[in-house]
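ok so I'm stuck.
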Amino acid sequence: MSQSQPFEFRSPHGIRKIESQTRSWNGITVRNIVHYPDVGKAWHDISSHETTVAIVLGQVGGYCEPRLNLKRPTPRSRFDVGHTTFVPADMTVWAYTDGLRSVRELRMSFAPKVPESILGDDLDSAKTDTPVLLLYDDKIARCAELLAEECQEPSSGGRLYGESLTTALTATLFTRRNAQIQRGNGLAPWQLRRAMEYLEAHMTQDISLEEMAKLVGLSQSQFARSFKTSTGMPPYKWSLDARIKRAQELLLRCTEPIAFIALQTGFADQSHFTKTFRRATGETPKDWQRSRKL
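replied:
not stuck anymore, here's the structure
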C-alpha cells in the first residue's frame, strides 16, 4: 500500500507545506509530492545522497524550473509542465518557483548502481554522471503520471506493474543509443515458453519483473521490451488478463462466493477484484456471472 510520510526538501526557502505518498519498486523510492510555496519566490535543493529524478506533473499559478545557479535562470523555450530533471547524487540543483500556489511532481531516488541493475548492458553510463535540466519527453511524463497514480491508489498490477513502469522510465533516461533497435526481435521460443510457464504457475502471487528477467537471462528492460514484442502486451498486462480469464472460468463452473474467487485469482479482496473485473469487462463479476448462467 502507499505510505503517507513526512518529507522534507534540502535547503528549503519559502516552502509552506509538503504532501507526499511513497512507494518502492526496483530499489527506487518513488514519491508523489505536492508542495505549496509561499507567495513570490521559493526554492530548494533537489539533490539527495542518492541519485534523483524529478518530473513536474502540475503547477498552479506561476512557473517552476531547475537551476544549476540559484541566481541564473535556465534557458528555456517553454514553461509548461511535463519536464524532467536528473540530478546525480549530492550534486546541487535548485528547484526554483515564482508565483506558484502549488507544484505536483513525481520524484524518484535510488542508489547510483540501480540503473545498471535494471538495464544491464543497455546502460549508457555516461548519462548517469551528467545532470539533465528541463527534458521534455512524452514517455517519461506518461510513466510518471501512472506512477503517481500508483502511489496514491495501488491498482491491480501489483509489483510487476510498478517495476514495469520504473523500468520503462529508467530505460528512457539511461539506455544507450540504438539498444532497442538491436534487441527488437522478441524472446527466443525457449525464453517465451519459460516466461509463460512462470506466469501461469505464479498467477496468484506478487510476481517480480526482476525474477522473470533472471529466469531467461536478460536485464529487466530487455525482458520487458522483448516480451511485449513477442506477445503484444507488457508482462503485467498479460498476467492481469490471465487472472481475469481464470476468474471467468471459476465464475462459470463453481458456486463459491465472489470473495473466494477473488482470493483464488490473486486479488486482495472482493472490492479490489470487482473494480478490476469491471474495468476489464465492463461488468461486475456478479452481473457477468448472472448473464452467462441464464
